[in-house]
Amino acid sequence: MTESTEPYRHHHKDGSLWVVGQLRAGQADGYWEWFRKDGTQLRSGHFSKGVQVGEWTTYDKAGKVYKVTTIKKAAVPSGNPLTGAGLPR
Q: Rounded distance, CA 26 to CA 2, Å?
């Protein structure tokens, strides 16, 4: 039986959207996006069971791709998607 996902959204202190993604069994799963306070996208990528996987993209302030990082298979979760700690910058 597969567990369903639940949407996750968190906001900056000023109320603007900071991060949007989904949780499965309390862990980040699927596609996630982070945003700056001005609404421009900061980074995006995928999680699988709380672990970063695949390509992660970081965007400059103009919204253009600044850097693409390919995440190799990780043994343990590599950061906290809810706070951004330990995630690619």
A: 14
pTM for the full model?
Answer: 0.78
* E strand or H helix that includes residue 43: strand 41-48
| Euclidean distance between CA atoms 16 and 37, whole angstroms | 6
Cα-Cα-Cα-Cα dihedral of 83, 85, 86, 88, to 10°?
70
Class of residue 44 by CB neighbours under 10 A (exposed 0-12, middle 13-18, buried 19+): middle
Residues of the chain with pLDDT under 70: 1-2, 74-89
- Separation CA 80–CA 27 (nearest Å): 9
Which of 9, 27, 28 shows the shortest CA–CA distance to 19?
9
